Amino acid sequence: MPPEQTQQPLLSEEQEETAYDSSEKVVVVGIDDHDGDVEAPPFSWRKLWLFTGPGFLMSIAFLDPGNLEGDLQSGAIAGYSLLWLLMWATAMGLIIQLLSARLGVATGRHLAELCREEYPTWARIVLWLMTEIALIGADIQEVIGSAIAIRILSNGVVPLWAGVVITAFDCFIFLFLENYGVRKLEAFFAVLIGVMALSFAWMFGEAKPNGVDVLVGILVPKLSSRTIQQAVGVVGCIIMPHNVYLHSALVQSRQVDPSKKGRVQEALNYYSIESTIALIVSFVINIFVTTVFAKGFYGTEIANSIGLVNAGQYLQEKYGGGLFPILYIWGIGLLAAGQSSTITGTYAGQFIMGGFLNLRLKKWIRALITRSFAIIPTIIVALIFDTSEESLDVLNEWLNVLQSVQIPFALIPLLCLVSKEQIMGSFRIGPVLKVYYLLYLNFGHTGHLKHRFIYLIEDYEMPDYFIDIKLLSLSSLWAIN
C-alpha cells in the first residue's frame, strides 16, 4: 500500500509526549514590545486575563465531593472551630500548587515527565502506580458524588450504579470541549465553579450562620481530642496527589519561552495571582458548606451520622422548602462539584500516564483508558454499597486517608526536583524552603524530626534519586503513623 494511503498510527515515533502541542497553546507573548529576556515585562490586566484558567482548573480539586464531605462532617461535629484549619490548609495547598506551577513553567515539562527522566525505571514505575492508585481513589469519590447528586435530582428514580454509568460518559464532554481549544474548556469549568458558588451561597443565605461565630472560627485556633478525626479529614482532603501533577502540566497551556528569564518570571507572577484568587474562591465555597452544617447540626444527636449520602435529606428536614427546596440546591451544587472534578481527574490521568510512560497515544484513547481505570472499580463500589449509606460514608473517609498516605509520592519528587539547579536554573528553591516543606509533609509527627534530619544529613553524598526514594519510603510510613 502506498505511504499516503496508510492509516495514521496511534504512536508517533518522531516526538516525545508533551502536555500540549504548540498549536494548542494560548499565545500571550508579543502583547507588548518588551523582549522579556532578563526582566519581567510590566504588569498588564490583559495578560492576567490570558493567563487566567489553569489555576481555576486546579482549584476544582479543593471543591470535589471528598472535600464537601469533609466540610459537612467538620461543621456538623466540630461546629465553627475548625474553620481556621481549613484556611491554613488551603493556604498551604496554594504554596504547594505554586511550586508545581513553578516547575512546569521554568522547565517546560510537567512533573510526571521529569520523574520519568530523572529516576530509574523501577522508581518511576512505583511512582506512577502510587499516583494511579491515588487518582482512582479520588475518582471513586468524585463519581460517587455525582451519582448521589443525580439520584437526588431524579427523586431517587436513578439508582447509584446508574448514576455512575451516566457520570462515566463525562469524558466525552471533556473530549468535545477540548477540540474547541483550551480557553473554551476553561470557560466551561468557570461556569461549573460559578454554579457551585451560587448553590452553596444560597444555602448559606437560607441557614443564616452567625457572622461573629464564623469570624472567630477562622481567626481563633481551637482543637480538641473530640475533633481530631475531622481535623485530619480537613487537611487530608485539601492536598490531592494527582492535582500536584496536574497543575505542572496545565501551566504549559500558555506559550512561554523557558529560555527567557523575564518571560518565565512574568508567567509565574500571573499564575501566582490567578491561583491565589482561585483558591480564595474555593475557600469561600468550603466555608459556605461547613457553616451551613455547623449552624444546622452542631450539637445535635444526628451530627455524627451525617454524610454525603444523607446530607440532602437532613438539610431538607432542617431548613424546609423555601423558595426553592434546599435539597435540590444541594443536589445541583454537588453535581457541579462531582462533574467538574471527574473531568479534571480524566485530564490529570492523561498527563500522568503520558508523562510517566511516554505513551504517545492519541488523546481520546488515553482519556478512555484513564476513565476505564476509575469507572470499573467505581461501579463495583456502587453496587456493593448502594444499599448501605453508612458504609458508603465510611468508605469516603477511608479514601480521604488514602489520599493522605499517597501525598509523599507527589510532594517529595516535586520538592526534590524544584530544588535542583540543573533542572530549575535560577528558579530553584533553596534548602531552607525545602526543609520547611518537608516539615509540613510530616506535620503532626514532631517526635521523629531529629531522626529525619539525621537521615537527610547521612544521605547527602548519595545519588539524588536514592535520597528522593528514601524520603518517599520514610514519609509514607510517617503519614501512616
Automatic annotation (TrEMBL):
The chain crosses the membrane at residues 77-100, 121-138, 158-176, 188-205, 277-298, 319-337, 368-386, 398-418. Keywords: Membrane, Transmembrane, Transmembrane helix. InterPro entries: NRAMP_fam. Residues 1-10 have a biased composition (Polar residues). One of its GO terms (biological process) is positive regulation of reactive oxygen species metabolic process. Pfam families: Nramp. The keyword Membrane applies. It is found in: Membrane. One of its GO terms (molecular function) is manganese ion transmembrane transporter activity. It is a multi-pass membrane protein. Residues 1-21 are annotated as: Disordered. GO terms for cellular component: vacuolar membrane. Belongs to the NRAMP (TC 2.A.55) family. HAMAP family: NRAMP. This is Metal transporter Nramp3 isoform B. It comes from Glycine soja (Wild soybean).
